[in-house]
Amino acid sequence: MLYREAGQFRTSYEADQQIFPIRQDRIAFALLMAVAVVGVPLFASDYWLTAILIPFLVFALASLGLNILTGYAGQLSLGTAAFMAVGAFAAYNFQLRVPGIPILVSFLLGGASAALVGVAFGLPSLRIKGFYLAVATLAAQFFVPWLLVKVGWFSNYSASGVITAQKIEILGFVFDSPVRRYLLVLAIVALLALAAKNLVRSRIGRAWMAVRDMDVAAEVIGIRIMRTKLIAFAVSSFYCGVAGALYAFAYLGSVEPDAFNLDLSFRILFMVIIGGVGSILGSFLGAAFITLLPILLEVLLHGGAGLLGLNLSPGTPSMMQLVVFGGLIIFFLIVEPHGLARLWQIAKEKLRLWPFPY
Amino acid sequence: MTKSWKSAVLVAAAAAAGLAAAPPASAQQNTQFIGITGYRVGPYGANGAAFFGGFIDYLNLVNERDGGVNGVKLTWEECETEYNNAKGVECYERLKTRSALGPTAIHPMSTGITYAIMEKAPVDKVPLITLGYGRTDATDGRVFPWVFPLMSNYWDAATGIVRFIADKEAGNLKGKKIVLLYHDSAYGKEPHSVLDAEAKKLGFELRMIPVPHPGNEQQSQWLQIRQYKPDWVILWGWGVMTATALQTAQKTGFPRDKMVGNWWAGAEVDTVAAGPAATGYYAASLNLAGKGYPVVKDVEDVVYKKANKGQDAKLVGTVLWNRGLAAAMYTVEAIRRAQEKYGKKPITSEQMRWGIENLDVNAGRLKALGFNTMVPPVKVSCEDHGGSGLVRFQQWAGSEWKIASDWMKGDSAMVRKMIEDSAAKYAAEKGIKPGCMGG
Amino acid sequence: MQFFLEVLIGGLLAGVMYSLVALGFVLIYKASGVFNFAQGAMVFFAALTFVGLQEKFGLPFGVTLALSLAAMVVLGVLTERIVLRPLVNQPQITLFMATIGLTFFIEGLAQLIWGTEVRRLDLGIQDEPIEALMERFNILVSRFDVAAALVAGVLVAVLAVFFNKTRIGRALRAVADDHQAAMAVGIPLKQIWAIVWSVAGFVALVAGLLWGARNGVQFALTFVALKALPVLILGGFESILGAIVGGLIIGASEKLAEVYLGPMIGGGIEGWFAYIMALLFLLVRPEGLFGEKHIDRV
């Protein structure tokens, strides 16, 4: 009833090519953005902003990056956290060593540095495929943090290798409160997501998908495989790098190389798979799911046990949390292997006919 | 599975997500809420279970035996961090909102989490207590008013170990060879600068050998040690690395009684796993192990037997359980101290800061509390947020820790100087004007 | 020279320990095309079950071993039934993710049942140098490592006989070659997968006992999986021989690199050296040493 596209005619190419061709989608998206920009800062508590929304956006950006590589270009990578580390440490060093450099430029340069590293570790993808490549990207995962710990210069010779991010200041405006940092992250993520959405619909995006679906066939129709794969690695790592910089500057404030460990890479891969491989929306849904689920379980299990007056032995809720988390991951994969984005699509199709499905 | 059923799951998930946002449990009247960022699963879960077990056992003891602190009952909530920095931040932010007065004081029990929340804490006016870990130069309270590395810090440990070795070598380390075998991370890099300085000053030869995380395979490191033939090995380990080091030392024929660990490499979880290979191994300690203290007996009687609220009877008396007990004791004593100034009612986190900064647990007080010599006396001041700097050494006798030295101090003058230099550098970088906060 | 030999021998023996873990991955990948990330968790689960049973009931070694094996078989069968069967025909990456979910599940379950404390596992072989070699050549070889290598050798021999001589083994190989064809000639695919997961559970038990005796039975046992991954890429995902040879190469070269190259560039390079080496190796042979050559067709 509400979600009907009958009567909406597209009369120009421009109208046909817009991101949301259906009017209801446009309205819904505008509403969502309004809530994110106006509603959230008005109503969300500091806890929600700093502990849930900011990490959600940062992780969404990182999984967007990984989704470009894995979902669109078909190259599996387990080194996401390493590229985030490069972005974080590069942004820190640009801020530290280049006097007067705007912070946004540092973020971009951090992303660019990550892109360079990404291309270097993407080179083997020209010869190696599938899980062999996945395990090979682990080389980046272990090498980069090692290098950041070993070379004192990266952390400005701090005794422990921990860096403390500088203040975020743009044109004299200091982003110090959670609301301000949230808005900054939101703006950056929204812009980059828009760019990604357009990128995957462009010539290069279609080349990625051709390579993903069958690289030999793509080569036959004249797509340059090497260039396409390396661009995918560069763009993906750029996104991860910016996410890493935001992780350090807007979320944690101070990070050590060890924080960018394999667990983080897996978390982001989870977001991509649970959210939906090859879907921009899926990156956001996946990030929300993986960020919220453990917190929810924690609250339910720890709080629930207390409410019910259960005398669980200490540590039991923590272990239950692991069991339930693992179980839910498997459950979701079985129920919908194509991820939450696919569920959303199914829901939309249903809505189209609702309430008269005939 | 039908589609509608799938959406039902989604709706349920959304509803549950809403629940997470439920307002904090309303602060009950006349209770003091303590936020605990703990970990009981993951690679360090065994360490966490012992430490937080002791911590909570003591809080229960105070409630059950004394009816709280001057009539103010203690309540707490534990949040699982899995020793993960991001989760630690989430826990910290959550615990912060649980009571209008704040989480009293936070024991992050992880150097990484300490760093991650160190800049948030002053903004929220929440003191951090980092018992023998975290940022060493935070001992200078004029630059780090909100961080309290109570008792001793990593540099006290490193110089203390050097002093202990020197004592064993009849006071002379000239020409001796010492290896530092360290966990290749922020934690393992902490003692480098101070040991370098010691090597120069005392004339011993120092070689530092890193062990990559997690450290479950150390053949190459120990073959290097075997070739180098050091007189002593200092072990800066954490988790599985310690047990593996002891096993591999045995495998390569290095005597265990020439190995000294720091206090995160000196608990039962480390030595039990290594079995007979650990016998003879020395470790620095912040606190003594064992059950021979009146307070431990009280916990067993009141918390375990009478109230049946004990955490895990198997852990009672272990090194880390006793450390948790001591950590809770300092926390409770600081609450008591703050109550002296602000009145016998629940105090805010900000008032707690004053309580910790003016904490004075002397030998008499320790005796009254039933701790006797388990921990050293601690007297905190604005300049010295550590308050003791003492370490004591224990030796693993195959089934339990035996005391191997008296409370002793390392080169505290040198440590103090380095702390002040490092803190001053940090203050300059951050634009902090060092100074005492007072009440 | 004596030192070089010592490092080399030590490395080779350590490599055998890596191979043991890698074997479990290979078995499952070969038969069902699943990259089973939960292998490390299975190692942990197996070792923890063994010491847990030992501690609780104090039964003789053999009985405890049999009981732990039974537990691993149950785990394997349940995994096949609950996790893999509903996911048949899904892309490899989905299956991979499911095994990561399984990793969390098993890790949590193991600790829920047996607790988090660190335990000692005593197999009765002390990890000490063999004196005879020590006295005569001044070369240090650990008795435990030699014993472990022998166990690994026996295990591989048993697996080889199982795969080549028994009916089930032949069926397994048929499934590995071509699922469709195997089904067409009447091989019950689901049973075969359950058997493979059980065999992998058995390998995990052996690896868990040996690694547990070395490091103590604790959560960190799950990390041994990370040591096995470069072995896998080097040896090829489908080859048992590859797992053994890959393990030896990785073990020896990472120790030599750490000892001779490490001090020059700051040390602690073992964490990534094996991966970089495997990566360089792949550039020459993209399917690993003994992996099956994959031919792309349009």
Distance between the termini of chain B: 63 Å
Number of strands of chain B: 14
Low-confidence stretches of chain B: 1-27
Helix content percent band of chain B: 40-55%
Order of helices and strands of chain B: HEHEHHHEEHEHHEHEHEHEHHHEHEEEEH
- Specify the number of helices of chain B: 16
Strand content of chain B: 5-15%
Listing every helix as H and every strand as E from the N terminus to the C terminus, the arrangement of chain C reads: HHHHHHHHHHHH
The SS-based structural class of chain C is: mainly alpha
Description:
- The complex is a heterotrimer of chains A (358), B (439) and C (298).
- With 358 residues, chain A is mainly alpha-helical.
- Chain A is 71% helix and 2% strand.
- Chain A has 14 helices and four strands.
- In chain A, strands 1-4 form a two-stranded antiparallel ribbon. A two-stranded antiparallel sheet of chain A has the order 2-3.
- Chain B is α/β, with parallel strands linked by helices and 439 residues long.
- Chain B has 16 helices and 14 strands.
- Chain B has helices at residues 3-20, 45-66, 85-96, 111-118, 120-124, 154-168, 186-189, 192-202, 219-228, 240-251, 268-274, 294-306, 319-342, 349-357, 363-369, 412-430; strands at residues 31-38, 73-80, 128-129, 147-148, 177-183, 205-211, 232-236, 259-261, 282-285, 360-361, 378-379, 390-396, 401-403, 408-409.
- In chain B, the strands form four sheets. In chain B, strands 5, 6, 7, 8, 9, 12, 13 and 14 form an eight-stranded mixed β-sheet that branches. Chain B has a two-stranded parallel sheet with strand order 1-2. Chain B has a two-stranded parallel sheet with strand order 3-4.
- In chain B, strand 1, helix 2 (45-66) and strand 2 form a beta-alpha-beta unit.
- Chain B is globular, with a radius of gyration of 22 Å.
- Chain C has 298 residues and is mainly alpha-helical.
- Chain C is globular, with a radius of gyration of 20 Å.
- The N and C termini of chain C lie far apart (54 Å).
